[in-house]
Amino acid sequence: MKKIILIQLLCLSCLATAWAQKADSLYIFRFVQEKDVFYVPWRDNGGQLEQLVSLLQQYKEAITAGSIPLYINGYCTGQPTHRENLRMAAIRSNRVKSELIRRAGLAEEHFITANHQGSYKEERNVVTVTVRIPVDTREVAERDFSDTDDTDDTDLKAAQPQEPAAQQTVQQPKNAVQQPENTVQQPENTPQQEKKSVSSVSSVSKKSPASPSRKGCIPLSLRANLLRWATLTPDLGIEWYATPHISILLNASWTSWSWKDKDRRYALWNLSPEVRHYLGTARHGYLGLMYHTGEFNYKLTSTGRQGSYHGGGITGGYLWMFRPSWGIDFHLSAGYTRAEYDTYTLAPTGIRVYKEHNASRNYWGINSAAITLIWKIGGNKQ
Question: Compositional bias of type Polar residues: which residue ranges (predicted)?
Fold first, then answer.
C-alpha cells in the first residue's frame, strides 16, 4: 500500500511540474536592423502584443503584488562595439516596457530586465518577454505558437528550470531566473535583492560564451570609392573607430595611364585623412573635417599640366548598412584647394616644351564626391 501511495505522489509531482512549465509564456518582439523604434505592425509584433497585454490584464493583481515576475531580455548584434550592442538592446527593451506600461497599466518595478550582445535562436534583433505564472494562480489556456518558430513550447520547457510544485505559490515567486541562450540564474526574494539581480544579469551576460567580448578586436572598416574605380583609378581606404561616434579615416588613390603614343596622359596620387563624428543613436549621418594632398600630371589636350595640390574642408554624408558588415557611404566634401603646376606641350620628337612655370590656382568649392563600398571587420563585425 505504501508503495502505491508513493508512486501516486511521484506521478502527481511530475504532472504538477509539467503543468508549471506550460504556464510560462514567451513572447517575442522583433526590431528592424540598426533601428531602436518598436514597430507594432511589423513581423506579427501586433498579435504578440495583444496576447501579452490580455494575459497581463488577467493577472494584473498578482503582477503588481510581486507574485508573477515579468522577464525582459533584449538581444542585439550589428553595432560597432560590444558596448553599443548592449546599449541598443537596452533601448529596445525600454521601448517594449513602455508599451506594456502604457497598455497594461504596469510600472517599471514589475520588470526584471537583462540585455545581451548576441542573437536569440538565430534572431538578431529581438526583445523577449517571459511571464512566469506560479502554480496556484494558473487559469490560462495554452497559447498556440505554431505560427512562430522562436516560441516553440518544447524549446521553452528546455530553457527553464524544473522545481517541485509545492514550492511554487502565489505569495512566493520562484527562486530561479532562467534566460534563453545567454542564461544566468539569480536569487529573488525581496525587492532589494531583485534590483541586485537585474544588475548581476547584465554584467554576467557580457561574459557569456554565446556573446564573446570584442576587447581583442580593433574596430575597423575597409573602403573602396566606386566612383574612382569607375574612372580606372584604384582607391582604397581604412577607417578606425576611436569611439562609437568618432572615427579616423585615411583614403589613398593612384593611377597612371597614357595613350596616343604617350601624347595623352592621366596620372595622379592622392592621400586624404579625415576625422568624422557620427550623429544619433543609429549613426547613419555624419559630419567631419578632411585634408587632402597629392600630385598630378594631366594632358588630355595639346597642353598638359603637372604639379601638386593640397587643401581641406568639411565633409558630410550618409552611411547605409545593407548588411551587418557591408554598407555604402555617400560622401561629399567642400572647402579650399591650392594647386601649383607647370604647363607644357610635347614636340613631335616627344620632348617636353614648358609653356609656364610655377603657375597656381586657388579653388573654393566641392573638393570630392564619393560612393564608397564599406566592409566592417574586427570589432565591427557581429
Answer: 174-192
